[in-house]
Hints:
This protein is mainly alpha-helical. 52% of the residues lie in helices and 7% in strands. It is built from 13 helices and five strands. The radius of gyration is 21 Å and the shape is globular. It starts with 13 loop residues before the first strand and ends in a 5-residue tail after the last helix. Adenosine-5'-triphosphate binds at residues 19-20, 22, 28-29, 31-33, 156-157, 159-160, 195-197, 206-210.
Amino acid sequence: xxxxxxxxxxxxxxxxxxxxxxxxxxxxxxxxxxxxxxxxxxxxxxxxxxxxxxxxxxxxxxxxxxxxxxxxxxxxxxxxxxxxxxxxxxxxxxxxxxxxxxxxxxxxxxxxxxxxxxxxxxxxxxxxxxxxxxxxxxxxxxxxxxxxxxxxxxxxxxxxxxxxxxxxxxxxxxxxxxxxxxxxxxxxxxxxxxxxxxxxxxxxxxxxxxxxxxxxxxxxxxxxxxxxxxxxxxxxxxxxxxxxxxxxxxxxxxxxxxxxxxxxxxxxxxxxxxxxxxxxxxxxxxxxxxxxxxxxxxxxxxxxxxxxxxxxxxxxxxxxxxxxxxxxxxxxxxxxxxxxxxxx
Length: 344
Ligand code: ATP
Ligand code: MG
Protein backbone atom coordinates (compact mmCIF):
# COMPACT_ATOMS: atom_id res chain seq x y z
CA UNK A 1 0.00 0.00 0.00
CA UNK A 2 1.07 3.54 -0.80
CA UNK A 3 2.45 4.80 2.56
CA UNK A 4 0.99 8.28 2.15
CA UNK A 5 -2.57 6.96 2.22
CA UNK A 6 -2.48 4.63 5.20
CA UNK A 7 -5.44 5.32 7.44
CA UNK A 8 -6.70 3.96 10.71
CA UNK A 9 -10.32 4.96 10.05
CA UNK A 10 -13.20 2.75 8.93
CA UNK A 11 -12.96 4.25 5.43
CA UNK A 12 -11.08 2.58 2.59
CA UNK A 13 -8.20 4.82 1.50
CA UNK A 14 -9.20 6.77 -1.60
CA UNK A 15 -7.44 9.75 -3.18
CA UNK A 16 -9.21 12.70 -4.82
CA UNK A 17 -7.93 16.03 -6.10
CA UNK A 18 -8.76 18.62 -8.75
CA UNK A 19 -7.35 21.47 -10.80
CA UNK A 20 -9.36 24.28 -12.39
CA UNK A 21 -9.37 24.39 -16.19
CA UNK A 22 -8.86 28.14 -16.16
CA UNK A 23 -5.88 28.06 -18.59
CA UNK A 24 -2.19 28.71 -17.88
CA UNK A 25 -1.40 25.42 -16.11
CA UNK A 26 1.90 26.34 -14.44
CA UNK A 27 4.96 25.06 -12.63
CA UNK A 28 3.28 25.60 -9.22
CA UNK A 29 0.33 23.42 -10.24
CA UNK A 30 2.80 20.82 -11.46
CA UNK A 31 5.08 20.72 -8.40
CA UNK A 32 2.41 21.34 -5.74
CA UNK A 33 -0.31 19.14 -7.22
CA UNK A 34 0.06 17.25 -10.49
CA UNK A 35 3.44 15.65 -9.73
CA UNK A 36 2.05 14.55 -6.36
CA UNK A 37 -1.03 13.10 -8.08
CA UNK A 38 1.29 10.93 -10.16
CA UNK A 39 3.26 9.88 -7.05
CA UNK A 40 0.02 8.77 -5.37
CA UNK A 41 -1.16 6.69 -8.29
CA UNK A 42 -0.83 3.06 -7.25
CA UNK A 43 -2.27 -0.33 -8.05
CA UNK A 44 -4.02 -0.80 -4.73
CA UNK A 45 -5.55 2.63 -4.01
CA UNK A 46 -8.31 4.24 -6.05
CA UNK A 47 -7.26 7.69 -7.34
CA UNK A 48 -9.69 10.23 -8.82
CA UNK A 49 -8.40 13.39 -10.50
CA UNK A 50 -10.83 15.99 -11.68
CA UNK A 51 -10.85 19.01 -13.97
CA UNK A 52 -13.02 21.23 -11.80
CA UNK A 53 -14.83 23.27 -14.46
CA UNK A 54 -17.63 24.29 -12.06
CA UNK A 55 -15.02 25.99 -9.87
CA UNK A 56 -13.51 27.71 -12.90
CA UNK A 57 -16.78 29.49 -13.75
CA UNK A 58 -16.95 31.17 -10.33
CA UNK A 59 -15.09 33.87 -12.28
CA UNK A 60 -15.95 34.61 -15.94
CA UNK A 61 -14.65 32.07 -18.47
CA UNK A 62 -15.12 32.42 -22.20
CA UNK A 63 -16.95 29.21 -23.27
CA UNK A 64 -14.50 28.32 -26.06
CA UNK A 65 -11.55 28.96 -23.76
CA UNK A 66 -13.12 26.77 -21.05
CA UNK A 67 -13.64 23.90 -23.50
CA UNK A 68 -10.06 24.22 -24.70
CA UNK A 69 -8.62 24.54 -21.19
CA UNK A 70 -10.51 21.46 -19.96
CA UNK A 71 -9.11 19.30 -22.77
CA UNK A 72 -5.66 20.83 -22.37
CA UNK A 73 -5.71 20.12 -18.64
CA UNK A 74 -6.68 16.52 -19.34
CA UNK A 75 -3.76 16.33 -21.80
CA UNK A 76 -1.54 17.81 -19.05
CA UNK A 77 -2.69 15.18 -16.54
CA UNK A 78 -1.84 12.36 -18.94
CA UNK A 79 1.41 13.93 -20.20
CA UNK A 80 2.60 14.34 -16.60
CA UNK A 81 2.16 10.61 -16.01
CA UNK A 82 -1.43 9.95 -14.96
CA UNK A 83 -2.65 6.74 -16.55
CA UNK A 84 -6.39 6.81 -17.37
CA UNK A 85 -6.57 3.07 -16.81
CA UNK A 86 -5.20 3.48 -13.26
CA UNK A 87 -6.69 6.84 -12.24
CA UNK A 88 -10.22 8.07 -12.90
CA UNK A 89 -9.85 11.29 -14.95
CA UNK A 90 -12.98 13.36 -15.55
CA UNK A 91 -14.49 16.82 -15.52
CA UNK A 92 -16.61 17.83 -12.57
CA UNK A 93 -19.70 19.10 -14.41
CA UNK A 94 -20.29 15.64 -15.89
CA UNK A 95 -20.90 14.05 -12.50
CA UNK A 96 -24.01 15.82 -11.21
CA UNK A 97 -23.59 14.32 -7.73
CA UNK A 98 -20.93 16.99 -6.96
CA UNK A 99 -23.51 19.78 -7.35
CA UNK A 100 -26.21 17.79 -5.55
CA UNK A 101 -24.07 17.17 -2.48
CA UNK A 102 -22.77 20.76 -2.63
CA UNK A 103 -26.33 22.01 -2.05
CA UNK A 104 -26.61 19.98 1.13
CA UNK A 105 -23.22 21.33 2.25
CA UNK A 106 -24.40 24.89 1.49
CA UNK A 107 -26.96 24.20 4.19
CA UNK A 108 -24.39 22.72 6.61
CA UNK A 109 -21.62 25.34 6.25
CA UNK A 110 -22.07 28.69 7.99
CA UNK A 111 -21.72 32.10 6.31
CA UNK A 112 -18.98 33.06 8.76
CA UNK A 113 -16.89 30.04 7.71
CA UNK A 114 -17.05 31.11 4.06
CA UNK A 115 -16.37 34.78 4.70
CA UNK A 116 -13.22 33.87 6.65
CA UNK A 117 -11.61 32.06 3.70
CA UNK A 118 -8.40 33.75 2.56
CA UNK A 119 -9.07 32.82 -1.06
CA UNK A 120 -12.49 34.51 -0.95
CA UNK A 121 -10.92 37.67 0.45
CA UNK A 122 -8.09 37.59 -2.12
CA UNK A 123 -10.23 36.84 -5.15
CA UNK A 124 -13.24 38.99 -4.30
CA UNK A 125 -10.94 41.84 -3.30
CA UNK A 126 -12.52 45.15 -2.38
CA UNK A 127 -15.58 44.53 -4.51
CA UNK A 128 -17.24 41.65 -2.62
CA UNK A 129 -20.75 42.85 -3.48
CA UNK A 130 -20.00 42.29 -7.12
CA UNK A 131 -18.34 38.86 -6.79
CA UNK A 132 -20.38 35.81 -7.81
CA UNK A 133 -22.26 33.88 -5.13
CA UNK A 134 -20.39 30.82 -6.48
CA UNK A 135 -17.05 32.34 -5.50
CA UNK A 136 -18.22 32.57 -1.88
CA UNK A 137 -19.79 29.08 -1.92
CA UNK A 138 -16.79 27.50 -3.72
CA UNK A 139 -15.34 25.75 -0.63
CA UNK A 140 -18.65 23.91 0.00
CA UNK A 141 -18.54 22.58 -3.57
CA UNK A 142 -14.92 21.59 -2.98
CA UNK A 143 -15.94 19.69 0.16
CA UNK A 144 -18.61 17.93 -1.93
CA UNK A 145 -16.03 17.07 -4.64
CA UNK A 146 -14.01 15.24 -2.02
CA UNK A 147 -16.69 13.77 0.22
CA UNK A 148 -19.00 12.50 -2.54
CA UNK A 149 -16.29 9.82 -3.01
CA UNK A 150 -15.60 9.39 0.71
CA UNK A 151 -12.03 10.38 -0.24
CA UNK A 152 -9.63 10.04 2.66
CA UNK A 153 -6.57 11.79 1.19
CA UNK A 154 -6.29 14.93 -0.92
CA UNK A 155 -2.93 15.95 -2.45
CA UNK A 156 -2.85 19.76 -2.82
CA UNK A 157 -0.58 22.78 -2.63
CA UNK A 158 -0.21 24.75 0.60
CA UNK A 159 -2.78 27.38 -0.51
CA UNK A 160 -5.58 24.79 -0.29
CA UNK A 161 -4.91 23.87 3.35
CA UNK A 162 -7.61 26.19 4.67
CA UNK A 163 -10.21 24.75 2.28
CA UNK A 164 -9.36 21.23 3.44
CA UNK A 165 -9.81 22.29 7.06
CA UNK A 166 -13.25 23.56 6.05
CA UNK A 167 -13.97 20.23 4.35
CA UNK A 168 -13.19 18.53 7.66
CA UNK A 169 -15.42 21.00 9.54
CA UNK A 170 -18.30 20.30 7.15
CA UNK A 171 -17.87 16.52 7.54
CA UNK A 172 -17.72 16.84 11.34
CA UNK A 173 -20.81 19.08 11.50
CA UNK A 174 -22.82 16.86 9.13
CA UNK A 175 -21.89 13.71 11.08
CA UNK A 176 -22.71 15.45 14.37
CA UNK A 177 -26.00 17.07 13.25
CA UNK A 178 -27.37 13.78 11.89
CA UNK A 179 -25.72 11.51 14.48
CA UNK A 180 -23.85 9.42 11.90
CA UNK A 181 -20.29 8.48 10.92
CA UNK A 182 -21.11 8.97 7.27
CA UNK A 183 -18.31 11.23 6.00
CA UNK A 184 -14.58 10.61 6.58
CA UNK A 185 -12.36 13.28 8.09
CA UNK A 186 -10.10 13.87 5.12
CA UNK A 187 -6.32 14.22 5.38
CA UNK A 188 -4.59 16.87 3.27
CA UNK A 189 -1.38 15.59 1.67
CA UNK A 190 0.91 18.63 1.30
CA UNK A 191 4.36 17.29 0.51
CA UNK A 192 7.55 17.95 -1.42
CA UNK A 193 10.02 20.82 -1.62
CA UNK A 194 7.64 23.15 -3.49
CA UNK A 195 4.21 23.12 -1.84
CA UNK A 196 3.93 26.87 -2.43
CA UNK A 197 5.75 28.04 -5.55
CA UNK A 198 5.97 31.83 -5.56
CA UNK A 199 5.57 34.31 -8.41
CA UNK A 200 8.82 34.91 -10.31
CA UNK A 201 8.13 38.67 -10.10
CA UNK A 202 7.14 38.90 -6.42
CA UNK A 203 8.35 36.49 -3.74
CA UNK A 204 5.39 37.34 -1.48
CA UNK A 205 2.70 36.16 -3.94
CA UNK A 206 2.04 32.59 -5.00
CA UNK A 207 2.42 31.64 -8.66
CA UNK A 208 -1.14 31.59 -10.06
CA UNK A 209 -3.06 30.89 -13.25
CA UNK A 210 -5.00 34.06 -12.67
CA UNK A 211 -1.99 36.40 -12.26
CA UNK A 212 -2.29 38.91 -15.14
CA UNK A 213 1.52 38.89 -15.60
CA UNK A 214 2.65 35.97 -17.77
CA UNK A 215 6.24 36.64 -16.62
CA UNK A 216 5.15 35.74 -13.06
CA UNK A 217 4.82 32.06 -13.93
CA UNK A 218 6.29 29.25 -16.00
CA UNK A 219 3.45 27.75 -18.00
CA UNK A 220 3.51 24.05 -18.78
CA UNK A 221 3.17 25.00 -22.46
CA UNK A 222 6.15 27.44 -22.50
CA UNK A 223 8.99 26.51 -24.86
CA UNK A 224 12.63 26.19 -23.77
CA UNK A 225 13.56 29.77 -24.73
CA UNK A 226 10.61 31.24 -22.86
CA UNK A 227 11.40 29.20 -19.73
CA UNK A 228 15.05 30.32 -19.84
CA UNK A 229 14.05 33.95 -20.37
CA UNK A 230 11.54 33.95 -17.49
CA UNK A 231 14.07 32.39 -15.11
CA UNK A 232 16.78 34.82 -16.24
CA UNK A 233 14.45 37.73 -15.48
CA UNK A 234 13.13 36.26 -12.20
CA UNK A 235 13.47 38.65 -9.29
CA UNK A 236 16.38 37.80 -6.95
CA UNK A 237 18.69 39.58 -4.52
CA UNK A 238 22.37 40.50 -5.03
CA UNK A 239 23.86 37.94 -2.59
CA UNK A 240 25.38 34.56 -3.38
CA UNK A 241 23.44 31.40 -2.46
CA UNK A 242 23.96 30.20 1.12
CA UNK A 243 25.16 26.69 1.84
CA UNK A 244 22.34 25.86 4.30
CA UNK A 245 18.54 26.26 4.21
CA UNK A 246 18.66 28.61 7.21
CA UNK A 247 20.39 31.21 5.04
CA UNK A 248 17.26 31.44 2.84
CA UNK A 249 14.87 32.37 5.64
CA UNK A 250 14.76 36.10 4.92
CA UNK A 251 15.23 35.74 1.17
CA UNK A 252 11.86 34.73 -0.36
CA UNK A 253 12.90 34.99 -4.02
CA UNK A 254 16.11 33.04 -3.51
CA UNK A 255 14.24 30.43 -1.46
CA UNK A 256 11.65 30.07 -4.19
CA UNK A 257 14.20 29.30 -6.91
CA UNK A 258 16.03 26.80 -4.70
CA UNK A 259 12.73 25.12 -3.72
CA UNK A 260 11.81 24.82 -7.40
CA UNK A 261 15.19 23.26 -8.17
CA UNK A 262 14.87 20.77 -5.29
CA UNK A 263 11.32 19.77 -6.27
CA UNK A 264 12.23 19.32 -9.95
CA UNK A 265 15.29 17.26 -9.00
CA UNK A 266 13.31 15.24 -6.42
CA UNK A 267 15.74 16.14 -3.70
CA UNK A 268 15.93 18.36 -0.61
CA UNK A 269 16.84 22.02 -0.28
CA UNK A 270 19.87 21.08 1.84
CA UNK A 271 21.13 18.69 -0.83
CA UNK A 272 20.78 21.41 -3.48
CA UNK A 273 22.58 23.99 -1.35
CA UNK A 274 25.39 21.53 -0.63
CA UNK A 275 26.03 21.66 -4.39
CA UNK A 276 25.29 25.25 -5.33
CA UNK A 277 26.00 27.14 -2.05
CA UNK A 278 28.36 30.07 -2.78
CA UNK A 279 27.25 30.47 -6.41
CA UNK A 280 25.85 33.75 -7.74
CA UNK A 281 22.41 33.80 -9.38
CA UNK A 282 24.12 34.46 -12.71
CA UNK A 283 25.52 30.92 -12.40
CA UNK A 284 22.57 29.25 -10.69
CA UNK A 285 19.81 30.51 -13.02
CA UNK A 286 21.17 28.76 -16.15
CA UNK A 287 21.50 25.49 -14.17
CA UNK A 288 17.90 25.86 -12.98
CA UNK A 289 16.69 26.64 -16.53
CA UNK A 290 18.40 23.57 -17.87
CA UNK A 291 16.77 21.33 -15.27
CA UNK A 292 13.34 22.95 -15.78
CA UNK A 293 13.53 22.47 -19.54
CA UNK A 294 14.74 18.88 -19.14
CA UNK A 295 11.75 18.04 -16.90
CA UNK A 296 9.04 20.14 -18.56
CA UNK A 297 9.81 19.82 -22.29
CA UNK A 298 8.74 16.16 -22.57
CA UNK A 299 5.46 17.03 -20.81
CA UNK A 300 4.65 20.01 -23.04
CA UNK A 301 5.56 18.05 -26.19
CA UNK A 302 3.25 15.23 -25.15
CA UNK A 303 0.48 17.70 -24.23
CA UNK A 304 0.70 19.22 -27.72
CA UNK A 305 0.56 15.76 -29.30
CA UNK A 306 -2.45 14.72 -27.22
CA UNK A 307 -4.26 17.95 -28.11
CA UNK A 308 -4.27 16.73 -31.72
CA UNK A 309 -6.42 13.80 -30.54
CA UNK A 310 -9.46 15.57 -29.12
CA UNK A 311 -11.77 12.60 -29.65
CA UNK A 312 -9.50 10.41 -27.57
CA UNK A 313 -9.44 13.02 -24.77
CA UNK A 314 -13.24 13.29 -24.86
CA UNK A 315 -13.51 9.51 -24.71
CA UNK A 316 -11.21 9.38 -21.64
CA UNK A 317 -13.27 12.11 -19.93
CA UNK A 318 -16.58 10.38 -20.66
CA UNK A 319 -15.34 7.03 -19.42
CA UNK A 320 -13.85 8.68 -16.28
CA UNK A 321 -17.17 10.42 -15.54
CA UNK A 322 -19.12 7.19 -15.74
CA UNK A 323 -16.64 5.40 -13.44
CA UNK A 324 -16.76 8.33 -11.00
CA UNK A 325 -20.57 8.32 -11.01
CA UNK A 326 -20.60 4.65 -9.99
CA UNK A 327 -18.78 5.58 -6.78
CA UNK A 328 -20.61 8.86 -6.13
CA UNK A 329 -24.22 7.77 -6.75
CA UNK A 330 -24.61 5.32 -3.82
CA UNK A 331 -22.84 7.74 -1.43
CA UNK A 332 -25.20 10.56 -2.46
CA UNK A 333 -28.23 8.25 -2.16
CA UNK A 334 -27.19 7.32 1.38
CA UNK A 335 -26.71 11.02 2.18
CA UNK A 336 -30.22 11.83 0.93
CA UNK A 337 -31.62 9.02 3.13
CA UNK A 338 -29.78 10.38 6.17
CA UNK A 339 -31.09 13.90 5.50
CA UNK A 340 -34.64 12.58 5.12
CA UNK A 341 -35.26 13.14 1.43
CA UNK A 342 -38.20 10.96 0.43
CA UNK A 343 -37.62 8.64 -2.53
CA UNK A 344 -33.86 8.31 -2.04
P1 ATP B 1 -6.22 30.29 -9.79
O1 ATP B 1 -5.27 31.44 -9.72
O2 ATP B 1 -7.21 30.38 -10.93
O3 ATP B 1 -6.86 29.94 -8.46
P2 ATP B 1 -4.24 28.29 -9.32
O4 ATP B 1 -2.93 28.50 -9.96
O5 ATP B 1 -4.35 28.64 -7.87
O6 ATP B 1 -5.33 29.05 -10.19
P3 ATP B 1 -5.88 25.94 -8.91
O7 ATP B 1 -6.57 25.24 -10.02
O8 ATP B 1 -6.67 26.84 -8.02
O9 ATP B 1 -4.65 26.77 -9.55
O10 ATP B 1 -5.13 24.88 -8.00
C1 ATP B 1 -4.82 23.56 -8.46
C2 ATP B 1 -3.83 22.90 -7.53
O11 ATP B 1 -2.54 23.51 -7.69
C3 ATP B 1 -4.17 23.01 -6.05
O12 ATP B 1 -3.83 21.78 -5.42
C4 ATP B 1 -3.29 24.11 -5.56
O13 ATP B 1 -2.99 23.99 -4.17
C5 ATP B 1 -2.04 23.89 -6.40
N1 ATP B 1 -1.30 25.14 -6.57
C6 ATP B 1 -1.78 26.28 -7.14
N2 ATP B 1 -0.83 27.22 -7.13
C7 ATP B 1 0.27 26.67 -6.54
C8 ATP B 1 1.57 27.15 -6.24
N3 ATP B 1 1.93 28.39 -6.57
N4 ATP B 1 2.45 26.30 -5.64
C9 ATP B 1 2.09 25.04 -5.32
N5 ATP B 1 0.87 24.52 -5.57
C10 ATP B 1 -0.03 25.32 -6.17
MG1 MG C 1 -6.26 28.56 -6.93
